[in-house]
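Lab notebook, bench 4. Continuing the backlog of folding jobs that were queued last week. Each job is logged with the same field layout so the records can be merged later without manual cleanup. Today's entry covers Fatty-acid peroxygenase, a 359-residue chain. Filled in by technician R.K.

JOB TYPE: sequence-to-structure
TARGET: Fatty-acid peroxygenase
LENGTH: 359
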Amino acid sequence: MMLTKGYSWLPERRRRSADGVVETRVLGRPAFGIGGAAAARFFYDERQVRRPGAAPLPRVLFTADRVHDLVGETAATWDATAPRWAGRSVSLLDESAAVLADGVARWMGLPRDGDLAGDCVAMVEGSADAAGPRRWRARAARRRQERRLTDVVATVRDGRPQAPGSATALEVVARHRAGDGHLVSRETAAVELLDIARPAIAVCWLVAFAAHALHRWPEHRDALRSGDPGFARAFAHEVRRLYPGAPFVAGRAAGAVEFAGHAIPDGAVVLLDLHGPNHDPAVWKNPYRFDPGRFLGPDALDPADVVPPAADEPATVALLSDLAVRVARLDYEVPPQDLDIPLDRAPTRPRSGMLVRPR
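JOB STATUS: finished
OUTPUT FIELD FOLLOWS
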């Protein structure tokens, strides 16, 4: 049922429950579906819920200066690439994935070989499938990139260390030491590098959704085109709120814990509903209307309270804010296409990939 209902599965189950908590089973294990601001705080508390692959990366990678540099590299790649699109129809999802992959590789210090963009898109596309072609492509893509990055880490370790203040993300991760003081394995370092690159490249979905929003609500184009940082961030937050990202995220109870009066046994699956709360009329006025003004002014909602965090929150919002402005400034027409966004598959996208024809 979860696989066929897509984004509506957990929100519908939660709406039918008395307190918004769903008790069910996932892959034979007891599972609890939760949602809302209190649920998000509970879920992201490592004392309550363990999340596979959620080991913290070195904090030095995501300082404000580092994120600014990442945005700068990606912006430079966009500015160099976008003129080549003139006169032909291009998928903004695919093209922005390539732009993001190039910018991320420059920022991380990775070799710009191998299809990092295509492989990361395949990994995200197959992330919600238990089996089938998308899942198989995702596994093959992950293995391919992990092998490549393992070799890259080995090459870095054979060289001379860079000065701490100038070290790239590749250098920091390749020389990262575990709690026992030993270097993490090359394979572990490769996984960590991929965990930095993949979420940044996945912003391509949000770029496509930003263009979709501008097409459907063109009254926001001039304000976004102006480059006002506050409006750009509000626009980015509203894209993340309205448009479907992951339907939910999963973790395991870190012990015998309790939420909203429900006893959750150690190891039980905990599902945090992402899609439902972002469209809850009890929280949002006209929830299916695109309105960046929700996040502006003295009465603005705090996105941290109502929009669940992304895999790398500061970088995700910064990248989307910048690239959305660049989309608004791009002179293009939208050719006839299928702009429907199906909710029976996750992750979803405009069926056409959001085609534009720059002039």
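OBSERVATION: The radius of gyration is 21 Å.
SIGNED: R.K.
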